[in-house]
Amino acid sequence: MERIEHRACFGGWQDVYRHRSAALDCNMQFAVYLPPQAASRVVPVLYWLSGLTCTEQNFITKAGAQRYAAEHGVALVVPDTSPRGDDVADVDSYDLGKGAGFYLNATQAPWSQHYRMYDYVAQELPALIEARFPVTDARAISGHSMGGHGALSVVLKNPGRYRSVSAFSPIVAPSHVPWGEKAFSAYLGDHRETWKAYDATELVKAASERLPLLIDQGEADEFLHTQLRPDLFKAAADAADYPITLRMQPGYDHSYYFVASFIGEHVAHHAKALL
Amino acid sequence: MERIEHRACFGGWQDVYRHRSAALDCNMQFAVYLPPQAASRVVPVLYWLSGLTCTEQNFITKAGAQRYAAEHGVALVVPDTSPRGDDVADVDSYDLGKGAGFYLNATQAPWSQHYRMYDYVAQELPALIEARFPVTDARAISGHSMGGHGALSVVLKNPGRYRSVSAFSPIVAPSHVPWGEKAFSAYLGDHRETWKAYDATELVKAASERLPLLIDQGEADEFLHTQLRPDLFKAAADAADYPITLRMQPGYDHSYYFVASFIGEHVAHHAKALL
């Protein structure tokens, strides 16, 4: 593991590391923000999963989350959104292949060799972080768009592993929207029953624990009615008696200006559960 | 003037406009953040001048300043860093030509046709902003690196026009550092006496007013001792009895992580003078 960026930020350190991932069988980069408190004690971790086309850079340069992480004493860990490298399968498409790993374990060729982002974000990366950084095993997770799908599905598939979850503009029902149908049919094959294992709106029906769950969704989001559909998740959660907070935010779109505007409240949401 | 971006952000609007600049004789883009207060009344303006290689995008996507502008009720206006377009002179260099206008009026061919960023940021843009947006004529100005040079020199050349000034990691003595010597010799010619008209460390010696002046400088900035030299400005200001606040910030480098970490204090510095 090699540190490739190291920058002072809000009294702590915004770092980026490169390492060899066993789950993904390729070299990966991830970002870690260590708040000032981490200089003298261990701190809990908020994981952030980014959306389509992103790397580990988007969130750390655009969201302004470090301010709030420093206020609360929470570390931020931000993985990339897919396996990377010349020998990793890809297509000329922003919503499939590199930059579009969808936080699942692919079962179909040519994707199955490297596209195991679920194992990476749910197991390998937390194990690495907890072994090598001054952090506790108290975990929370959030994300944006495809990363909101990742955060919700990882939490729902791993009872007992996280303290809280949140999402911005998440894809909540990938089996029922074009982005999800395209990715899931490529990565998981055409048998739709297998898709349910990564579909938050399916997973919430059988959830065995209740975590603090916050979703913010911009009402002016250009993808709201076609790709995101938080109403589907809300209905399923209501039916399952899983209390969630879904906030529709007038005027906001799908961009990081939206994330930046509310990330402080999300960090506070997680800090309350973590600390 | 055409609005090309319009995004909700911290209760206000982060917009980008394209217009024809008379001073620069080309099409330009600038960004405007209108805080929530601007929906019901006029607000003062903080101008931000960016550094080498930047456009109007860097500050608005990376600094997180909108949060503080919204708290205080201050608009942010962010121009590009040089004239733009296919017919604008350029060289294959990050520190001369496009992206490196140095906020001066060039006198030498081929630069003098378009490179008049001083007139643009000191006169044309404020006149446009004050005519077309819900703002007062209370102005403050800040900037980063080359833009810190811009902020300091524009203020010192225009007594009575601004209420306050600040800078992050500014080039303060362009006549005495490689970036400045390269740019000034190209834009202004080899007669160094003419350079003094844009050199903050020269200008402060004859300053006729005293504004609240704050400079933050990272001690781990890779350009501190070669290109920035805030000590030269501090010595000149002290000799001229111009009180300035120069803060050396341990650990911080030249990046927007540094700007983001302290922009809240800069916005507060300006809000105190503006409101």
UniProtKB/TrEMBL annotation, chains A, B:
The keyword Oxidoreductase does not apply. GO terms for molecular function: S-formylglutathione hydrolase activity. Its EC number is 3.1.2.12. It is an enzyme of class 3 (hydrolase). It catalyses: S-formylglutathione + H2O = formate + glutathione + H(+). It holds the Pfam family Esterase. Coiled coil: none annotated. It comes from the Bacteria. Keywords: Hydrolase, Serine esterase. The keyword Phosphoprotein does not apply. Serine hydrolase involved in the detoxification of formaldehyde. Belongs to the esterase D family. This is S-formylglutathione hydrolase. It comes from Dyella caseinilytica.
